[in-house]
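Notebook entry, cofactor series.
This is the third protein in the set we're modelling with a bound small molecule. For this one the ligand is zinc ion. I'm keeping the input format identical across the series so the outputs can be compared line by line later. Sequence and SMILES below, as received.
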Amino acid sequence: MGSHAVVFYIFMIINLYETTIAHSGYDLPYTFFDGKDHAFHHSHIDSMYGSFFLIMDKILGTDKKFKEHLARQEKKKLAEKSQ
Ligand SMILES: [Zn+2]
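Returned structure with ligand:
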């Protein structure tokens, strides 16, 4: 590809870190990534395409089902608390 070896290794480290976090299923603190949104992508293949930067999902509206999912979960939690 013509890139410097250091650039390649930095890219690989960041990419492996991001992939591990994204597929962990956890919402870990102090990261830019969220495993929950990527897990939703795997269960709903037409949503949440981005695993690193989710800005394109916001711009293109492919985060709509995920937002609805989160709203339903929040509503369910509130209903369980009120019982
Ligand atoms: Zn994945």
